[in-house]
Amino acid sequence: MKILFISHSFPPIIGGVENQNFQLSKALGKSAEIRIIKNTRGKIWLPIFIPLTFFKAFFLMTQYDVCLLGSGILAPLGSTLKFFHPKKKFFCVTHALDIIFAEKKGWLSKIYKIINIPALKKMDKLFMVGNATIEEAVKLGIPKNKCKFIPNGINKNELREKHNRKELSKIFGKNVKDKKVILRLGRFVPHKGTSWFIENVMPELPKNVVMLAAGGRVARNTAGDKDDFLNSEKAILKNKLENRVKLFPAIPQADLKILLNTVDLVVSPNLHIPGSMEGFGINAIEAGVCERIVLASNIEGLLDAIKDGKNGTLVENEDVNAWVEAIEKIINTDTSILKKRSQKVGEYVEKNYAWEKIAQRYLKEMKK
């Protein structure tokens, strides 16, 4: 199969969609002939990237069997190309924000709903990263039979490494050798639940439990989710947790790998926030492949990422007592038992979410 892959956001830009597009295109390239048209300059380049890509893809599609778009932002480009190449097949990887952005307030969301949602309907197939995203898409009138759930993948070799608590202590800023360390990965946005967790759960945990929260911040006036970093800072100060909770709004990849391979527990305490949602929960399987114990809210895309009892434990969202009980149960479990459980988590994630296997699922659907 000859695939023309178009990505509106690609490394070296850092982010979930960017990494997903990179890993997917790399894995597809092992079983198919693929050419990538990619934007590596960020959102500011999109007004130039999209028209230039149209003219390039207009001619290239005569040589390719299918066109795969990296996100719903490119749906209008895909539907226009499909008009000129009706015998070719057009597919789109569809993330949560590609759907729910149409329901947000503001003029930009209204334009998106008018233009992008109808364009998505014209695609031959939409590869949704979560079942919750499919549910939201159907509400907007996208036929369910056009949607196919395929989870995000993971590359163990790029994340799992050997590190020690001394390195972790250096990042935290003090010795955590005798501490129980919780990690929260993900952007500082309301639906990730970071500020809620700091405000409500951390004060109820034993004093030897500390926390690191790492992820990007949302720039001011950016379309989409609001920034929640300041609320997290306020929660720390209000509850006098300065010595127990550290925030990292910009962390190097090297330090991120140290965290993923040394902490005791990873949490995803997501909340229900109108107009936002977790499409999949990639951080949960990143932690899993590094053999970390994971606790996650039992909502939205986390239900696709976490299989209760296999690669993590699902906890009732926004239930403080449930979260405290689940965490204390883990930190009080014998270390040798936790180590065996962690190894099984890593094996499960590698078996079910390796990018090579996920890419084959894409190819199977496109061949249909």
**What is the alpha-carbon Rg in Å?**
21 Å
DSSP, total strands = 12
**What about the largest sheet?**
6 strands, parallel
CATH superfamily of the largest domain: Glycogen Phosphorylase B
Largest sheet: spatial strand order: 2-1-3-4-5-6
Low-confidence stretches: none
The ordered H/E elements are EHEHEHEHHEHEHEHEHEHEHEHEHHH
Gross morphology: globular
Please state the average pLDDT score: 93
Distance between the termini: 12 Å
**What is the total number of structural domains?**
2
Helix percent band:
40-55%
Query: What is the CATH topology of the largest domain?
Result: Rossmann fold
> Which class of the largest domain in CATH terms?
Alpha Beta
The percentage of residues in β strands lies in 15-25%
CATH architecture of the largest domain: 3-Layer(aba) Sandwich
Overall structural class, as computed from helix and strand content, comes to alpha/beta
What's the total helix number?
A: 15
Architecture overview:
The chain is globular, with a radius of gyration of 21 Å. Helix 1 crosses helix 15 (355-367), helix 3 runs parallel beside helix 5 (107-121) and helix 8 (194-200) runs parallel beside helix 9. Strand 1, helix 1 (16-28) and strand 2 (33-38) form a beta-alpha-beta unit. The model has no long low-confidence stretch (mean pLDDT 93). 45% of the residues are buried. 42% of the residues lie in helices and 15% in strands. It has helices at residues 16-28, 46-60, 75-84, 96-100, 107-121, 131-139, 165-172, 194-200, 229-238, 253-260, 282-289, 302-305, 320-331, 335-353, 355-367; strands spanning 2-7, 33-38, 66-69, 89-94, 125-128, 147-149, 180-185, 209-214, 245-248, 265-268, 293-297, 313-315. The strands form two sheets. The chain has a six-stranded parallel sheet with strand order 2-1-3-4-5-6, sandwiched between helices. The termini are close together. It has two domains: 2-150, Rossmann fold, CATH 3.40.50.2000; 156-352, Rossmann fold (3-Layer(aba) Sandwich). The chain is of the alpha/beta class and 368 residues long.
